[in-house]
Amino acid sequence: MSSQNIKMAIADMFEGLSNNNFNNFRHELLHRKEGPRVARIRVEGKTHFEITNVLVSTFTETGAVGVAVEMLRGIDCNEEADQLEMDKRKAVKLMLSNLSAVNFNNFRSELVHRKKEPRVALNRVEGKCFLEITDVLISTFSETGAVKVSAELLNAMYCNTEAAQLLKDTGVEYSEPGSSNTAGPSAGGTADSKHFVDKHRTELINRVNCVADILDQLLEKEVITQSSYREILVIPTSPQKMRELFSGPLNAAGPRGKDVFYRILEKEEKYLIEELKGKK
């Protein structure tokens, strides 16, 4: 939703509340413990439109819907809260429908291989259309959870723009663990600004073993081409494969390609990456 649509959705919700429930909503908002707090002068005696503006100006466009839902549930207006959240399903569905065929396949792959609980079985994802994947996400993670998981998967695919737009459209606040925002700096960046995979190039060349699996995923995510994939795959040893990968297609892919490579290494060579992260 745009800023205007967010305001309209909240204002429409207020129009449907009884006077008693609207007064209860203002009371809940005034006594909300979490920051930022809202001053009494901005709440007492204010109209539906004025409270809508207070929500958006205090909690931002992305936070206003979430806070409104929280307040509604606090006064047992669950039906109204559910209605306000309905846009999350539509937003997830729209996001999935707008992905390219390659990215949609990558999204399904990331969902199946997601390590965190709850896990999603292969037979619920493989060959499913965007409508079915939307239902799987919401039935597994709830509507708010579906948005957060979708943003997580989009970021893992380096679709940061789509992730940020989904969060903005739904009013959900989310950031990756260890990150200050969902579309932040390079995933493999280090304190000295040198990319992680460049900094540890020699050890990665000598110690990474599952090169074929990594190449499969780099091809799937379009970091390397089919011709590069075939050329590297026939090289006899893992270190030689890795050396060719670094000197050729990975170098050409730049920071974004290296970010994708880094995320794959985190999954495929977890303990090696953790060891290298601990090195100064």
Automatic annotation (TrEMBL):
Gene Ontology CC annotations of this record: canonical inflammasome complex
Coiled coil: none
Primary location: other
Sorted UniProt keywords: Cytoplasm, Immunity, Inflammasome, Inflammatory response, Innate immunity
Single GO BP term: inflammatory response
Location relative to the cell: Inflammasome
Superkingdom in the source lineage: Eukaryota
Residue ranges of the region described as Disordered: 172-193
Name by which UniProt lists this protein: Apoptosis-associated speck-like protein containing a CARD
Pfam families reported in the protein's UniProt record: CARD, PYRIN
Phylogenetic classification of the source organism: Eukaryota, Metazoa, Chordata, Craniata, Vertebrata
Domain Pyrin, residue spans: 1-90, 84-173
The CARD domain, residue ranges: 189-280
Organism: Gymnodraco acuticeps (Antarctic dragonfish)
